[in-house]
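Tutorial handout. Part one gives the primary structure; part two gives the three-dimensional structure as tokens.
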Amino acid sequence: MVGRKKEIQELNDLYSSGMAEFVAIYGRRRVGKTYLVDQTFEGRITFRHTGISPVEYVKKGEGLLKAQLKSFHESMVRQNLEADHCPRDWMEAFFMLSMALQKTDDGSRQLVFLDELPWMDTPRSFFVTALENFWNGWACHRSNFMLVVCGSANSWILNKLVNNHGGLYGRLTYQIKLSPFTLGECEEYFESRNIDLSRYDIVQSYMIMGGIPYYMGYMRRQKSLSQNIDDMFFTKGAQLRDEFGRLFLSVFDNPDRVRDVVVCLSKRNSGFTRDEISGYLKISNGSTLSSILKALIASDFVMKYVPFGFSKRKVHYKLIDPFCLFYLKFVEGRDSLSEGFWLQNLSSQPVVTWRGIAFENVCFNHIPQIKKALGISGVKTTQSAWSKRDDDEEGTQIDLLISRMDNVVNLCEIKFYSDLFTVDSDYYRTVMRRQALLEPFLKRGMGIRNTLITTYGLAHNKYSGVFTNVITLEDLFEH
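Part two.
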């Protein structure tokens, strides 16, 4: 399996722990949670069940709870676990499962995998109460038992399991947040599929698909990156044309409101404060907005940061999910897109401008690789964008600031170029001016390191010394 080495090792260690384990795996839709469990525990799963999507399941005359219980019963029968009737409620369903597992228990590890767990928790089903009773009253006392649950509804996983204050408080023995592939893992994935892409093109694929394995699976090796993007988004029946809407339907409590927040955040690359989001959407700045933002952060759609030099009350929320940003920029609201739209517009100004901004988000998603290239992997840092108006009101925007505990700030300029980047006299003055504007906000004794993050490197001339550090794609592709 491509990537996921750390997660595979963690799951195997838990499987061999000799103790009862309750593991929750969460992450955004399509990131590969089910695939991770299937591949890691192939041939070792005692019982598995997947909840029915509350959005996609439609059947007249039958309630969703009844359908969920019927599906659970069918899973038991199909996997040769004793279940002579369909359970009436979740308490009985888990009792039937525990009795069936006891009868087949030979002392070896019994692994139960419940996929899309939040979907099983239908209104007034008392599902969480039954799960609590199953774990606290039976499963946790069996040293050979392991329960693995996962789901894309991260707000549910966080609220009902990770941060549960009821009967499941502190009961999870481990949690794994599964994030999208890094650039290095994307390269490994494409190589495993015999898809020949340069690193320059892999970065552009990341700007669109965000390292999501499911989306990358639509790539065809006989076509160029641009042709593949047209097939995925801009042709009749394109596979991902409707994906943005599906992202929120079955995984968030308030999908329409979540979508509104994402659309709002896409309007400004540096992000918004809570008050700004509230004002823009004309909604209350209360608990509902808090839960939406927490869920979006947990799903890797959004990051929060405090702009350098500001108080913690100025927390900004920035949309960093490449897929959402690309979709909202080029696909959303365009009903009549011509065939070959992407191929025909590769050199257009909107696409060129988008690449520059999208590369900034690639960098925000690869802070560990940037820190490794700077030789500061072990140094605590905070990352942010930064903007400032000066006396002539021209102002300045710094793409990325890395504030370090060792009294240094890396002022990062981010440039996506098809060749070596050249510093001319005008750009030299721009960098020096930005440094001068930043200096009054530094604590005494702090130093600034002008840092260039670009594709292929820096052309050396009399101005190139303005950059202390240069980071290239080679660095960003590090594992």
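Part three, for discussion. The mean pLDDT is 91. The domain at 5-177 is CATH 3.40.50.300 (Rossmann fold).
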